[in-house]
Amino acid sequence: MPFSFPGFFAGCTAVPPTVEGNASLKFVELENYKFHVRTFGDKRLPPLIVVHGGPGGDSKYLYPIKDFAKTHFLVFYDQRGTGLSPRVDKAFLTLETSLDDLHNIVSHYGGSGQVKLIGHSWGAMLVVGYLGRHPERVSHAVLVEPGLLTPLAAKAFVRRFKASQSWWDALPLVKYLLLAPFVSTRDGHERFDYVMTRLMNRAKPGGPYQCAGECMPPNAFARAGYAAFSNMLKPVLDHPENFALDLTHNTEAYKGPLLLLSSECSFIGYRFQQEFHLPFLPVQTIHLEAKAMGHNMLTLNPAWSVAAIQAFFGEGSLPLSEKKPLEGGTS
Question: Domain 1-331 adopts which CATH fold?
């Protein structure tokens, strides 16, 4: 077979279409926007909504915690402009829009009642912001290692993140940029999304997020949303003073159970959360450390994570050695 240079790359440079280009994908349309959603479990069970990280990630990497569907109606959704949800103008890619979208998701699946929320990383930031705006809509909330909740935390986050990087980390970017022109486009975002998706799916072991020798599984993310990252987080990484929000504002109005779950190995793990976030969260917050785990514990240690969160929900119990932090309040 004759060698074809463009054809050689065509098979490894595609990104999946959003719901606008794939009629088989499930979605829910709210306020004239089609969110890609995956739901598991009986609709008659209490709703549990999972809010993924990023900004610019998608919900696929969190599917390992599907065991929650045994006791809940479990909802995963791809946030606006990322994953398999449609791409939009950057004017709609803001933290405030993300919070409004979460409220629409909560209202759709929770009706006039309450829901439980699990937020990971950026998603945990959104959950904190949501608790301050709509505390009455949430019965239980779980924050898994939020990145930055206040201007002070933003400066510490960026400082630590940059200290963890080296010029070696930029080498894969060059390769993916060279391949990007071979990506076919439909919505105009595929090429930048391709580069970011490949970077997120590199499965680099160890720090700054994971324990030594630990890495994410291949293709954990379906499709990144570069514009969401570029509009909401990149300006903060470039200039941390751009993050002027206090997402913990009014969270004292939330009176329900609140679990802060953070890892031993991540650069924004237990000690970071203890110093920069816990003092500003509601007094009933329980802080539990995931020993010998990293930032992506929900993906890499789903059995432990589900058991810990179910114990917090009052639906199960952890081994004796892991019970004390859950029973003893803030540690």
Answer: Rossmann fold (3.40.50)
| pLDDT tens for each residue of 287-322 | 999 999 999 999 999 999 999 999 999 986 654 334
Establish how many alpha carbons lie within 13 A of residue 105's alpha carbon, considering only the half-sphere containing its beta carbon.
31
End-to-end alpha carbon distance in the chain = 65
Is residue 34 left, alpha or beta, with left meaning phi > 0 and alpha meaning psi from -120 to 50? beta
Which string of DSSP letters, residue by residue, matches 103-119? HHHHHHHHTTS-EEEEE
- Distance, in Å, from the CA atom of 223 to the CA atom of 219, rounded to the nearest integer, reads 9
Q: Which two tokens stand for residue 258?
A: 């609140």
The model carries a pTM of 0.92
Which residue, chain included where needed, has tokens 């160890």? 206
Amino acid code (one letter) for 164: S
For 208, half-sphere exposure in the C-beta direction (CA atoms, 13 angstrom radius) is 16
Question: What type of residue sits at position 63?
Answer: Y
Segment among 12-21, 22-31, 70-79, 97-106 with least mean pLDDT: 12-21
Domain ranges in the chain? Answer: 1-331
Per-residue confidence (pLDDT) for residue 6, from 0 to 100: 45
CB 12 within 8 A of CB 39: no
Token couple for 302: 């789903």
Edge-first strand listing for the sheet containing 258-263: 27-30, 33-40, 73-77, 47-51, 115-120, 138-144, 258-263, 285-290
Q: How many CB atoms lie within 10 A of CB 146?
A: 30
Q: Rounded CA gap, 145 and 294, in Å?
A: 10
Bridge pairing between strands 115-120 and 73-77: unpaired
Query: What is the CA 101 to chain-centroid distance, rounded?
Result: 15
Long-range contacts of 273-276 (CB under 8 A, 24+ apart): 273/145, 273/146, 275/156, 276/149, 276/150, 276/152, 276/153, 276/156
